[in-house]
């Protein structure tokens, strides 16, 4: 009798068979009828059911509102960081970007190798405003030939600005201007 | 799984009859009652349908929890029902799915509770009631039924935890091995093995009739 139940008999016991055996009677008792003491929590559960029945609508609305708010905050944050980067890069307060911006300057002298130092300096000296435009504009405008006039107009203001505001330029220049005279 | 398997013979329902021989379906009618309509009505806010569900599910749920965490079963059961009420609008499934879902919620609440309490559940087995339990002598009265049920649950709860849980979910909650496997995160074969070993151990505990 030590071998009982085997696997097949165990499955049948679990399904409710062999109810006339001692083990089957134990399992029958385990799934026996509900006693009144087992239903004492009905009042609290029904109260929870009533409370939950009213709750879902506002909670869903709150979730929707919070989602919209989260999206808005994310978008505004992205815009702020993006515009902040733009402002910082334009004003030169962003250390990583200010060093990158003078680099487009060599694009301008490329068509005319002779006045390298002359053109190079005004491009570097531009403290605010249009450093990306000056390197971007001339290469496309110069081959056409139509843009020569505007280029002259565009170049001419820069020295004026540089002469008017020499102080911010010196921060960048001292390291680079000594290099130019040596060659 | 449905009551029609009992009334129909093997000829008309060949597939179901092959899977579930009629002789094995000696389960109590309360276990087989299909309350899927009540589940759907309760989901739509029908309070009387919810009461019907509670009266059917709470006793087995309480017994399962008593096997899991002992005397704190009532507290965990009420926490379980609060969560069930809250999430019921998003539930979809039949009565078997509902019982499985309720058992899953109860299990999570019980594990949280045990973690909070930081003590292992210990369910003392009333040894003196084992003989009465196995003999089935005093089942005529409700009080005797309650005592016998409590003793049977305590006896099952004395098994190693995995065996006890497999037996309780299958016998008391009336779930099949596949569903229990999903609740416990195990394969159905592992659930069958755990329940089988639990029954073998129980068979050693209760006085054996000569067979």
Note the topology:
The complex is a heterodimer of chains A (183) and B (211).
Chain A: H1 7-14, H2 22-30, H3 42-54, H4 56-91, H5 95-100, H6 116-125, H7 133-144, H8 148-155, H9 157-164, H10 167-176
Helix pairs in contact in A: 7-8
Chain B: H1 4-7, H2 14-19, H3 29-32, H4 36-43, H5 47-69, H6 73-87, H7 95-117, H8 128-135, H9 142-157, H10 161-172, H11 177-184, H12 188-205
Biased composition (Pro residues) (chain A): 104-114, 129-141
Region (Disordered) (chain A): 93-183
The percentage helix of chain B is 55-70%
The helix/strand order of chain A is HHHHHHHHHH
Q: Which regions of chain A are unreliable across 5 or more consecutive residues at pLDDT < 50?
A: 97-102, 104-183
Total domain modules of chain B: 2
What are the secondary-structure elements of chain B, in order, as H or E?
HHHHHHHHHHHH
Biggest sheet overview of chain B = none
Give the overall silhouette of chain B. globular
Q: CATH architecture of the largest domain in chain B, please?
A: Orthogonal Bundle
Binned strand content of chain B: under 5%
CATH homology superfamily name of the largest domain in chain B:
RNA polymerase sigma factor, region 2, helix turn helix motif
Based on secondary structure, the structural category of chain B is mainly alpha
Q: Radius of gyration of chain B, rounded?
A: 18 Å
Largest sheet of chain A: none
Please identify the oligomeric state: heterodimer
What structural class should be given to the helix and strand makeup of chain A?
mainly alpha
Number of helices of chain B: 12
Helicity level of chain A: 55-70%
Query: Which fold does the CATH topology of the largest domain in chain B refer to?
Result: Rna Polymerase Sigma Factor, Chain: A
Count of DSSP H/I helices of chain A: 10
CATH class of the largest domain in chain B: Mainly Alpha
Question: Unreliable runs of chain B, pLDDT <50, ≥5 residues?
Answer: 1-31
């Amino acid at each position: 009798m030590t071998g009982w139940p085997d696997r097949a008999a165990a499955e049948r016991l679990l399904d409710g068979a062999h109810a006339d055996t001692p083990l089957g009677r134990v399992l029958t008792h385990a799934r026996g009828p509900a006693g009144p003491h087992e239903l004492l929590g009905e009042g609290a559960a029904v109260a929870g059911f009533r409370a939950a029945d009213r709750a879902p609508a506002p909670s869903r609305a709150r979730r929707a509102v919070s989602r919209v708010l989260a999206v808005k905050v994310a978008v505004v944050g992205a815009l702020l960081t993006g515009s902040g980067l733009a402002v910082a890069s334009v004003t030169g307060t962003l250390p990583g970007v200010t060093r990158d911006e003078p680099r487009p300057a060599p694009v301008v002298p490329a068509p005319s190798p002779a006045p390298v130092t002359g053109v190079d300096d005004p491009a570097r000296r531009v403290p605010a405003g249009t450093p990306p435009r000056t390197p971007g504009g001339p290469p496309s405008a110069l081959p056409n030939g139509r843009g020569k006039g505007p280029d002259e107009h565009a170049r001419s203001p820069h020295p004026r600005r540089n002469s008017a505001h020499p102080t911010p330029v010196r921060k960048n220049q001292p390291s680079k201007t000594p290099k130019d005279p040596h060659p | 799984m449905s009551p029609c398997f009992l009334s129909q013979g093997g000829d008309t329902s060949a597939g179901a009859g092959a899977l579930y021989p009629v002789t094995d379906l000696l389960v109590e009618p309360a276990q087989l009652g299909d309350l899927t309509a009540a589940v759907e009505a309760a989901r739509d806010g029908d309070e009387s349908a919810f009461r019907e569900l509670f009266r059917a599910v709470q006793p087995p749920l309480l017994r399962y929890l008593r096997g899991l965490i002992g005397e704190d079963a009532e507290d965990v059961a009420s926490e379980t029902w609060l969560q069930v009420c809250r999430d019921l609008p998003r539930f979809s499934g039949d009565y078997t799915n509902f019982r499985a879902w309720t058992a899953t919620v109860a299990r999570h609440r019980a594990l949280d509770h045990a973690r909070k309490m930081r003590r292992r559940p210990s369910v003392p087995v009333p040894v003196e009631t084992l003989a009465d339990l196995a003999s089935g002598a005093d089942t005529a009265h409700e009080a005797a039924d309650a005592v016998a049920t409590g003793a049977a649950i305590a006896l099952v709860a004395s098994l190693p935890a995995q065996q006890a849980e497999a037996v309780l979910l299958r016998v008391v909650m009336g779930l099949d091995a596949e569903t229990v496997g999903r609740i416990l995160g195990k394969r159905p074969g592992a659930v069958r093995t755990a329940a089988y070993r639990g029954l073998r151990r129980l068979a050693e505990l209760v006085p054996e009739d000569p067979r």
